[in-house]
Amino acid sequence: MQKKFIALCEEKCKKEGSRIAEGKEPRLPVWKKESTLNYEKELKILQMELLKLQNHVKEKGLKLLIIFEGRDAAGKGGTIKRIIEHLNPRGARVVALGKPSDVEKTQWYFQRYTTHLPSGGEITIFDRSWYNRAGVEPVMGFCTEQEHARFLHEVPFYEEMQVGSGTHLIKFYLSVSKEEQARRFHDRKVNPLKNFKISPIDIKAQELWDKYTIAKYSMLLASHTEHAPWTILNSDDKKTARINVIKHILSSFDYEGKSPDLDLKTEPEILYDGSKEIIRLEKLITEEKMA
Fold first, then answer.
1. Which helix (H) or strand (E) holds 170?
2. CA distance 78 to 37
3. b/e for 55-91, b at 16 or more Cβ within 10 A?
4. Which of 126, 140, 201, 269 is most buried when burial is the number of CB atoms within 10 A of its CB?
């Protein structure tokens, strides 16, 4: 069997050599893990369901707002890319605001975000949102303690007004381990195609890990509400995280054409309610104080 396999490989190499000699482009075999093939197959099915959901949102005039928060390198961008990849851009958009201008700094904090909220029939995805004031801003010293405290007090009312006006609000927090974050930062440094993702704030993320943990706890405690709950996503495994996010979104709606054979059950160790994360962080912070 081994000799036959070697002979077959040699024959294919000769044919490939002849093709190249004729000036044709080389054909390289592509090998993929079975797990990757299964992921791509499931992702395609879920993306087709997302298109059905978008049609439902448009036909019913719904307003769908999805927020993605999390530490640096948690996988927010990649997850959003898979959600938006095949949706009609006329009814689905991603909002990723940069540093506020001098004028925006003088405005009500929520003002520049409010202008980007979805209208009827639209899906809007925030790649980071007003929760910058609950995470990176207080940790990096970009806002005062008073501004941080005011935000935590106001944000539940701001979101309650949105939900009260008919907006379907889904909030995801992508949770990545310190070790996995360090690995991804290293990958960004050595990979020329990912260098643009590295920023001065990213460099300090590992050093300020504990401060970010406390900020995360304060944010969840203040903003995990009945009308706008947080859904926590363990994103150390990016592919598994993406599948679970899309399943959660789809399971939140009943729409026409929804496949009866669709398995939308999420993994409890990957995707879970924010109250569970609050309890976990309380124990973690208490143990660190006692140590």
1. strand 167-175
2. 18
3. ebbbeeebbbbbbbbbbbbbbbeebbebbbeebeeeb
4. 126
- pLDDT tens figures, 83-122: 999 999 999 999 999 999 999 999 999 999 999 999 999 9
What span, in angstroms and rounded, lies between the C-alpha atoms of 74 and 40?
A: 21
Task: Using alpha carbons, select from 181, 169, 198 the residue that is nearest to residue 234.
Answer: 181
Q: Specify whether the CB–CB gap between 69 and 184 falls below 8 A.
A: no
pLDDT at 29 over 80: no
| Rounded distance between C-alpha atoms, residue 184 and residue 202, angstroms | 11
Q: Which of 21-25, 148-152, 170-174 has the lowest mean pLDDT?
A: 21-25
CB 220 within 8 A of CB 148: no
